[in-house]
Amino acid sequence: MRCDVSRWPPIRLWPRPRTAVTLSSAVVSLAGVARGSAVDVTVADGLSRGWVTTPPAGLTDLLELRAVAEARFQAVFHTAPAEWRIEADWSGERAFVCSALPVSLLASLHAEAEAQGVVVRSIAPNWVRALQRLPLREIAGEPLAMACAASPEGMAALFLRDGVPIDWRQHWCEPAEAAQHLRGQALAAGCELPGQAWVSGDRATLSALVQSNATMRWKVVPS
Question: Does the structural domain 134-222 have CATH classification 3.30.420.40?
Fold first, then answer.
């Protein structure tokens, strides 16, 4: 079964943000946002977590799927899932992508929004926002695909086979090191490096990425 892009990304997004806010640290501030504004908050990748969960065959109950995702989270990140808000493209028929943000960060954000008279319309990690900008239906139709989110912090990369997620990793690296890291991820995932890489991000990072990794074929979608 192909990736169900109708439910992508894991954290709800709204069509067009009125005011965009980026959180780059655990210190939450909405200073400068006009009272009564509706904001779409993007959280820096370093404050979020991402992973792929493969459910046991025949599992359909949402609570059970969440339990499997939480178990996978704890195994990968060695921390209690209760301290994180986990969202996913839940499915009992295929592997699915999960994302998580700290509960403490979300609580601080909503408290700050209430104090400032601001409405929070959506919250999502930067890599989720970036992947949403990519043509996911087209990517899901490729036998082996790679969807990436580039930022000054590094790169998040999702590998898919026939539209089904097989591996997600966050690479903390300079743009010039991206190709080496992606080859390592392909080896770890037990697959070949796809012939092309879809990538979204800020223009400066994308320019450095393409120029310093000329041996790779990039399909670029700027933010």
Answer: yes
Name residues whose C-beta falls within 8 Å of residue 29's C-beta, 6 or more positions apart in sequence: 112
Rounded distance, CA 65 to CA 17, Å?
31
Q: Name the token pair of 141.
A: 């139709």
Cα atoms in the 13 Å half-sphere on the side-chain side of 214:
2
Say yes or no: domain 5-128 is CATH 3.20.20.70. Answer: no
Q: What is the pLDDT along the chain (223 residues), one digit of tens a residue?
A: 344 433 434 444 333 335 677 777 766 778 888 888 888 899 999 999 999 999 998 898 999 999 999 999 999 999 999 999 999 989 999 999 999 999 999 999 999 999 989 889 889 999 999 999 999 889 989 999 999 999 988 999 999 999 999 999 999 999 999 999 999 999 999 999 998 999 999 999 999 999 999 889 999 999 8
The DSSP bridge pattern shows strands 19-23 and 49-53 to be: unpaired
Instruction: Locate the domains of the chain by residue range.
Output: 5-128, 134-222
The answer to whether 5-128 and 134-222 have equal CATH topology is yes
**CB-side exposure of 88: number of CA atoms within 13 Å?**
28
pTM across the whole model: 0.84
